[in-house]
Amino acid sequence: MNQQVSEHAIVHCLGLTKVFKDFWGRGKVLAVDNLDLEIFPGEVFGLLGPNGSGKSTTIKMLLGLLYPTSGAARVFGRPPTDTAVKARIGFMPEESYLYRYLNARETLDYYGRLFKLDRVERNRRTEQLIEMVGLKRAANRPVGTYSKGMARRIGLAQALINDPDLLILDEPTTGLDPVGTRQIKDVIETLGSRGKTVILCSHLLADVEDVCDRVAIMYGGKRQAVGAVEDLLQRREITQITASQLEPAVIERVREVLKKSGAEVLSVEHPTDRLEALFLRVVGQAQRDKLQTSGAESTVGVSSFLTGEESGISLVESLVHAGQAQERPPPAPRLTEPVPAPKTEVITHLTQSAPAEKAEPTGPIELPSQIAPNKNVLERLLHPPGGDKPK
Amino acid sequence: MSDPYTNFYMIMLPVAGLFALLTLIYVVRAAMNRQGGEIGGWELRGAARRVGAIARTTLSEGIRAKAGAGFALIILIAIPIFWFTANGDGTIKGQVQMFLSYSLGFTTFLLSLLTIFFSCRSLSNEIASRQIYGIVSKPVPRWQIIAGKWIGVMALNVILLSIATVAVYVGTLGTIGRFKRHLAHELETYGALKPDQAEATVAALDQVKGIGKEGLDSPVVTAFMNVLGKSRDAVGEILLRLPEATRMNLRKLDEMRRQVVVARAAVGVELPDVREEVDKRYAKLKEAGELPQGWSDSKIRKQIETALYGQFSTVPPGPQFMRQWRIAGPKPVKGRDVIMSVRFKLNAPGYIPPYDEGGDTFDENTLFCAWGIGNPSKSNFVQARDAYPVNSFYELEVPSFCLEDDGTLILSFVNLDPRKRDLSFDFQNHGLEVLYHVGSFETGLAQASLAALVPIACLASFGVFASTFLSFPVGTLIVLTLYILASSMGFIADALAVTKDYTGPYSLGLEFEIRRASYDLLGWALATGDLDPVNKLIDGRAIGWGPLWNDCWKFVLLKGMAVFVLAVLVIRRRELAAVIV
After folding, report:
1. Which of these, B36, B471, B580, lies nearest to A24 by C-alpha position?
2. Where residue A114 sits, what CATH number does that domain have?
3. Where are the domain boundaries for CATH 2.60.120 in chain B?
4. Which of A91, A175, B47, B211 is the most buried (most CB within 10 A)?
5. Which residues have C-beta within 8 Å of that of residue A212, sequence separation ≥ 6?
6. Number of folded domains that form chain A
């Protein structure tokens, strides 16, 4: 999530407005109101906002699914209805609208054909993508029999089949289990590190926060805030120091030092793990123990053609392009499970009662009247402290 | 024309014109109001792959979503049912004709319905269930989407029609085969032939050539003679021992060989150019001051023309009213067994009682006439005299040596019936024509199938166009209604009072012309095909590659393309993610 930002915006919206009209031409809904937006190549951009704020509408206007009432949008310098630029775009809609009677392979093959991929390439990418999204066992069943999460994974796969320069994801993590969510985040990070642009549209803020470079917050069709995540989120008035296990006496001395220098000690406690990490560990262990599942498998790792590890000329090309856009080499695909933790730690965590809060990404939590340091600062912005404190 | 009518039109026409103008303004304004910006190019490179992909998916949908399979099942069940139940007049010829008629007619009807459902569903379903997002976000131009859908629908139709055609072909050969086995069995039983003799005799039926003749002169007998090595009378004796039904079917089988299971081209009598004569008579009437009052000039001329054609077509009884026609055909092919038939229908109104006097016996509803075929002054002149049935088609076979060197055939005809009835020929409706062999049954069947495919292709483009802006149920209902309207144009002509019964001195005026014009416009707009393949096939008529190509050009290429262009224009304008209730 690190790349040089060039001057030419990949996506440019100028005064974009959309008014939905009814059959008689009367304006009914002002969905997007004079939106000005620029998205630069190589960044992961998050479009946030509550339901009905115009995020999906903006995305659809960028893809040519809707036409703006006024204003203009440009994608790769061309209007959204231009068909040639779509070869560089991958789109994952908010619901997977797939052909129920085709199976996973045929679906990806079909979309691959629409991109004019030749057979060898198509088969290669199809196999890699199916493996990546964990649908290998279910690959020959008709897509209509899939669960929602599995359908979303195929939706992700078809968005990636053409190795897009611009990936547009509309509510990508809705309906996915944490493993799938982690996977989407990995894909986004991988693509970001390869210099691709990703536009992410969501109201699940924890996920957005983890991966995005810049965000824009929309409400009522208008852009309310825009900027880099770090800039928006940093709370400069608080400093947090993390140290290894400290004796109580040492803690007291640190408190005195701080008090003497005039700072107020807000809290001293053990940081808690995130439920996501716990979940991944447990599931990873189960997978290593080779327990059966008929649903989606949880794989971790990103298909090699996306990470640029391809054979032949395309590899050189992709490395050259990747090298131009970044400072460090692409990360090796993580084909192993996440950090295997010994099982005892799991039990310890589960039985430890010191932090008496439930670790959930959203939702109000009852806490003792301590202000816990939490990463989800945006939530704090929206919910003033002193009442609910979600982690 | 009385005054209330005039006032009515003076009010209605401006009002209608105003509505039309407002609609036009609305449409033009909406069309110019596109906010989408310029649309990208045609993307011709790789178009085949994309269109093919969409077509394949459409076809899979049709097959797997059980619509195609269901229709295929109905066809495959219906054709055997028809095979068992088609009887016609009970003879083998009737059986085969009815089987062909039922199977192909039913199949084309069913495929038309399938096409309507399937094509109206193709795009509207995808748009409603938003699967179109996945396609429009790919580099696929909209015209390729429409093309893919159309090709997918037609692919399903081609598959089903091929299955049906093969089934019909097999069924026809099966009927003939069944009769042959029956004949072999009877030759053994009644004809006292040995089994291998019987088989050889039956096999000889395939070698029969030449025109049909009565009784012992029949070419069937000739073929049997050659196989069995017996004399004509001996063969006749064997045949007499067979049951009457079998003999009748044998005759009919040979008729079928010549007239049904074959592809023939037809040349008719051209109505003469009577314009000069019309002018002469018009001038004479004008001089004598006998022009009817209140009629327009063109109407009077039309009446005179109709009267003249009537004279040309009617043959009153009596040798003094002999008629002669020249029909131009292709040059005769020398040295081949070219069979030609003169096919005619004598029209005589009313009931004709049987006649039995002076040694002549004529059945009821027949007229005794004489045909002369060929040049009377030459030696290749052939005569035929018989009491021919009226108001139904009859075929008279003529040897090819009757043709002139340039392929013209001279026909002479005289009405000699003692019951003194006028008869007429309807030249414009195949009342008199010459048929000659141009191809085999396989050719004819193939052409009939292709001809059946043309209106289906046209319907498919209508359906795909409807699905670009209508939802599935609405679109299907509308296209189905239009299809039913198109099939019942005859009824509509009656309903709008524009048929020939209603034309005459009283049907002048604007209101008739408006009705006539709207009927013609409706017919032109809704027409999906010109040929009548099923009826042609059971008469053994070839459709001809020329007319077939013409039909294809008019309805698939011109009309279909026009509708295709409209569909592309609509889908390009449409906001596929917008839901308008």
Report:
1. B580
2. 3.40.50.300
3. 275-439
4. A91
5. A1, A44, A45, A46, A200, A229
6. 1
Q: Classify burial at A95, counting beta carbons within 10 Å of its beta carbon; exposed 0-12, middle 13-18, buried 19 or more.
A: middle
**Residue A168 in domain:** yes
In the numeric block, which tokens belong to residue B485?
């309207």
Using an 8 Å Cβ cutoff, are A63 and B136 in contact? yes
A153-to-A12, A132, A140, A143, A170 alpha-carbon distances in Å: 29, 9, 15, 11, 13
- H or E segment to which residue A39 belongs: strand A27-39
Q: Which A residues in the span 176-235 are in contact with B, Cβ-Cβ below 8 Å?
A: none
* CB spacing of A84 vs B49 below 8 angstroms: no
Q: Decide: helix, strand or coil at residue A5.
A: coil
Extended strands (E) in B31-171: none
Q: What are phi and psi of A374, to 5 degrees?
A: -130, 155
Taking the C-alpha atoms of residue A224 and residue A231, their distance in angstroms, rounded to an integer, is 15
Closest approach of chain A CAs to the CA of B165, in angstroms? Answer: 29
The distance of B36 to chain A (nearest Cα, Å) reads 5
Q: Tell me the per-residue pLDDT of A219-244, one tens digit each, with 9 for 90 and over.
A: 888 888 888 887 777 776 778 888 88
What's the whole-model pTM score?
Answer: 0.77
A109-162 pLDDT, tens digit each: 999 999 988 899 999 999 999 988 888 888 888 998 998 888 888 999 999 999
Q: Which chain A residue has its CA at the smallest distance from B573's CA?
A: A67
Q: Which CATH class is domain B275-439?
A: mainly beta
Which of A13, A32, A65 to substitute to test the interface with B, most B CBs within 10 Å? A65
B576 in contact with chain A, both atoms CB, cutoff 8 A: yes
Burial class (CB in 10 A: 0-12, 13-18, 19+), A127: middle
Nearest-angstrom CA–CA distance, B569 and B567: 5
Question: Would the CB atoms of B41 and A101 count as touching at under 8 Å?
Answer: no
Cross-chain CB nearest to B43 (options A67, A83, A111): A83
Q: Which helix (H) or strand (E) holds A73?
A: strand A70-75
Helix, strand or coil, per DSSP, at residue B96: helix
Domain membership of residue A64 (yes or no) is yes
- CB atoms near residue A169 (< 10 Å): 26
Q: Name the minimum distance, in Å, from the CA of B58 to any CA of chain A.
A: 10
- Whether A259 maps to a domain, the answer reads no
Question: Domain range for residue A158?
Answer: 11-233
Report in angstroms the alpha-carbon separations of B10 from B16, B95, B518.
Answer: 11, 59, 18
Determine the Cα–Cα distance for residues B425 and B343; give it in Å rounded to an integer. Answer: 11
- Residues B81-109: pLDDT tens digits? 988 888 878 888 888 999 999 999 999 99
In a domain, A277, yes or no: no
Q: Is A63 on the interface with B (CB under 8 A)?
A: yes
Amino acid identity at B405: D
Nearest partner of B139 among A84, A110, A160, A118, judged by Cα: A84
What gap in Å lies between CA B142 and CA B464, rounded to an integer? Answer: 13
Alpha-carbon span B437 to B262, nearest angstrom: 7
Measured from the Cβ of residue B144, the count of other Cβ atoms closer than 10 Å reads 27
Q: Distance between CA B172 and CA B175 in Å, rounded?
A: 5
Task: Supply B198's token pair.
Answer: 């019987």
| Distance, C-alpha A231 to centroid of its chain | 19
CA distance B452 to B534: 8
Find the DSSP H helices in B205-293.
219-228, 232-241, 244-259, 275-287
Would you tell me the crossing angle of helices B92-128 and B142-189 to the nearest 10 degrees? 160
**Going by C-beta distance under 8 Å and a sequence separation of 6 or more, which residues neighbour residue A231?**
none
- B495-510 tens-digit pLDDT: 887 776 666 655 566 7
Residue B334 has pLDDT above 70, yes or no: no
Residues facing residue A29 across a β-bridge: A20
Give me Rg for the CA atoms of chain B.
30
